[in-house]
Please model this.
Amino acid sequence: MKALQYVEIGQPPQVRDVPTPEPGPGQVRLRVTAAGACHSDSFVMGLDEEQYRANYPLPMTLGHEGAGIVDKLGEGVTEVAIGDSVAVYGPWGCGRCYQCAQGKENYCERAAELGITPPGLGHDGSMAEYMIVDSPRFLVPLGDLDPAENVALTDAGLTPYHAIKGSLPKLVAGSTAVVIGAGGLGHVAVQLLRALTPATVIALDISDAKLELAKEVGAHHAFRSDDSAPEAIRSATGAGTVTAIFDFVGNQATADLGAKLRGVETDQVLVGVGVADVTMGTLGSPYDATVRAPYWGSRPELMDVLALAHSGRVSVETETFSLDDSPEAYHRLHEGTLRGRAVVTP
Ligand code: NAD
Ligand code: ZN
Ligand code: ZN
Model:
């Protein structure tokens, strides 16, 4: 079969012929219908050799957003049937620890120790004609949802949903939510905020095209993400601070910008992969302001997100690519010229 693999450190991924995998006991093989390209893949491919080899194998088939048709069952699997259209829950866990017991396999306490990794982020992922899923527990029915249009909900939908859910009690009428970075995750975050809250939603980005997209999908306001943003927000809302900041960039510049927007009880939520210093303390931050750095989302939250898609409240702007053209999807992601999410349809 064909697969898009990261083969050589620092080089673009390549479409290669690899053996079609066979499902072992308890596993499920999917014929992949769609696979989304996430900025985290670019981050991983940007690591130097030492950092990369400490965490990931080479070659590795990319793709941690996946959807497919159940194609072959490993011994003992009875929970799904051949022909089912499913989405893959990506942050696999052990299934037994306290976090996993609540469906929060994204926060599995034992995954690292047991060597359990998400597909495409530690072992072969979804950018291939077929993929192996370790357990039917990681499959959620797609029903009549189109795989290509909805595959990105498994991460670009689930991650902002989980991030926003933690701040929902604060996002009451009269509140303001800021989304920094209106790309794959951010443009879904805008829709989720509109669907779930009465908050005024403000998007910040450095690209005019992304600011335009944010407004098209429901942002009340969209401003340049620079030093002028706090004043623009003050003019738009009448207040210099906001209720919650969802930062889908997560570098020092956006963390500093978010910190300027904090007021009493503001949540600053760093979702973009990175490290930033944020000043906290009774003398260093407004009272009861919080900073969180959530990761992906839980299995029931993925069901919630797919239910929102079923009811038409959330959709993903997608640009589709064939498997042969999939390196171009990452090139466009890297360039920042995609509208929404790049999705590969093998
Ligand atoms: P993307 O490239 O599709 O979107 C990023 C957006 O940020 C683009 O619109 C870009 O123009 C904008 N941007 C860049 N610099 C900016 C700045 N200084 N201010 C405002 N906007 C800026 O990326 P994506 O796939 O949506 O991923 C977003 C981030 O989330 C990445 O860092 C990714 O690794 C991370 N991520 C985290 C999790 C998690 O669980 N925490 C899950 C998935 C992705
Ligand atoms: Zn991702
Ligand atoms: Zn666990």
In short: The first helix runs from residue 39 to 45.
